[in-house]
């Protein structure tokens, strides 16, 4: 085994700096020095929702390859790479063959709190100075992208990119993004860069200026019934990134006939009034993470269009404070941990 250092929660929710073990490199593994790791709201859900088992969060990071296994062909030491929220899949099921490893019938291996397909160990995430990953699940980081601001693309970004692409968003599409947080602000940047007319739906009126700076043409205040009523049936696609369970009714009313609400924020059971789908033949969908080809395509698009996250970069020693502020919606729009203080 190799040893590194990272941030782990044990019995409580507080992360502590501890030594961690990484596997020795398999033939197709690369070792990555993790430089920057985004703080995703899923990390908060995972910390609060577990049964006391140890957890090292972090599933959107960038860094540099330090060592490669003997069978590695795509990377060499010194290459800048990015890793997201899945690190393996079966490779042979219909979804994997379609390039949708994120929907692998055998379930993709999650970057943290997943089960390694070969040795059965529990995966430890990117709040750590080193990560060992199969080369097929590491992506070359385009040189034009700032590595700290690019880290959130690998979870927040790809999670909204795939549905925007799958739903054919482009010039002439009217897109709404509900919840202006980590996922939401990237959804706005992508939709705008794809040429769509884009509107934010937020409970926070103070974000209106930011929404416009991000390229949105409007912000609707979700608690203002008059504003919502005036926007009835307006959007072809609504990407809902709200981090808590909520009534979809008011959001479905904003969706145009034959349009789609893609619920990517809260994942879990939801009661939906069928009538709010019936009137206008509306569609309810979801998405999460991304296939390997689409993830690489997203990174290329970001390099071409200059899209990265708006971040607050903090030393990794501030991780507990960052999580606490994220829980209070006090970040615009993504914390990224600088892990160089773990060396
Ligand atoms: N599908 C997937 O694979 C996937 C991947 C990553 C994350 N997620 C999930 O996506 C959600 C968003 O993640 P994130 O990292 O973007 O979180 P985030 O940065 O905290 O943003 C979430 C946004 O939701 C809105 N919101 C939060 N609490 C709310 C409440 N009580 N009522 C109404 N609106 C509320 C806020 O926007 P406003 O202030 O603008 O209203 C907030 O900025 C999380 O639940 C996360 O677990 C899913
Ligand atoms: Zn995430
Ligand atoms: Zn598979």
Structure report:
It holds the Pfam family ADH_zinc_N. Keywords: Metal-binding, Oxidoreductase, Zinc. Its cofactor is Zn(2+). The chain is of the alpha/beta class and 343 residues long. The protein folds into two domains: 2-155 and 291-342, Alpha-Beta Complex (Quinone Oxidoreductase, Chain A, domain 1), CATH 3.90.180.10; 157-285, Rossmann fold (3-Layer(aba) Sandwich), CATH 3.40.50. Helices cover 24% and strands 27% of the residues. The mean pLDDT is 97. The chain binds NADP nicotinamide-adenine-dinucleotide phosphate and zinc ion (2 copies). One zinc ion (ZN) binds next to helix 2.
Bound ligands: NADP nicotinamide-adenine-dinucleotide phosphate, zinc ion
Tell me the total number of β-strands. Answer: 17
The number of distinct helices, counting runs of at least 4 residues, comes to: 11
The 3D shape can be described as globular
Structural class: alpha/beta
Mean pLDDT: 97
* CATH top level class name of the largest domain: Alpha Beta
Q: How would you name the CATH homologous superfamily of the largest domain?
A: Medium-chain alcohol dehydrogenases, catalytic domain
CA-based gyration radius: 20 Å
What CATH architecture of the largest domain would you give? Alpha-Beta Complex
The end-to-end span amounts to 18 Å
Strand content: 25-35%
């Amino acid at each position: 085994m190799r040893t590194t250092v990272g941030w782990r929660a044990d019995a409580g929710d507080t992360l502590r700096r501890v030594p961690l073990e990484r596997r020795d490199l398999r033939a197709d593994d690369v070792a990555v020095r993790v430089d920057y790791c985004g703080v995703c709201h899923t990390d908060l859900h995972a910390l609060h929702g577990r049964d006391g088992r140890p957890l090292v969060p972090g599933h959107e990071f960038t860094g540099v390859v330090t060592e490669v296994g003997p069978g590695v062909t795509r990377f060499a030491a010194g290459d800048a790479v990015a890793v997201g929220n899945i690190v393996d899949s079966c490779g042979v099921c219909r979804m994997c063959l379609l390039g949708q490893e994120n929907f692998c019938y055998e379930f993709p291996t999650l970057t943290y709190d997943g089960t390694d397909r070969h040795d059965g160990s529990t995966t430890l995430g990117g709040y750590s100075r080193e990560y060992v990953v199969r080369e097929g699940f590491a992506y070359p980081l385009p040189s034009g992208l700032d590595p700290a601001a690019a880290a959130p693309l690998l979870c927040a970004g790809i999670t909204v990119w795939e549905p925007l692409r799958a739903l054919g968003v482009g010039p002439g599409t009217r897109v709404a993004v509900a919840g202006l947080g980590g996922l939401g602000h990237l959804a706005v940047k992508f939709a705008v860069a794809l040429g769509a007319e884009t509107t934010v739906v937020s409970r926070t009126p103070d974000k209106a200026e930011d929404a416009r700076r991000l390229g949105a043409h409007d912000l609707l205040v979700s608690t203002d019934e008059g504003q919502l009523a005036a926007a009835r049936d307006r959007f072809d696609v609504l990407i809902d990134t709200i981090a808590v369970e909520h009534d979809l009714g008011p959001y479905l009313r904003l969706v145009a006939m034959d349009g789609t609400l893609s619920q990517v924020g809260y994942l879990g059971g939801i009661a939906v009034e069928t009538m709010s789908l019936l009137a206008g033949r509306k569609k309810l969908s979801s998405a999460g993470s991304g296939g390997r080809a689409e993830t690489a395509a997203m990174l290329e698009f970001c390099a071409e269009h200059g899209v990265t996250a708006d971040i607050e970069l903090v030393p990794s020693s501030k991780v507990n404070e960052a999580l606490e502020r994220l829980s209070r919606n006090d970040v615009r729009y993504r914390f990224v941990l600088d892990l160089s203080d773990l060396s």
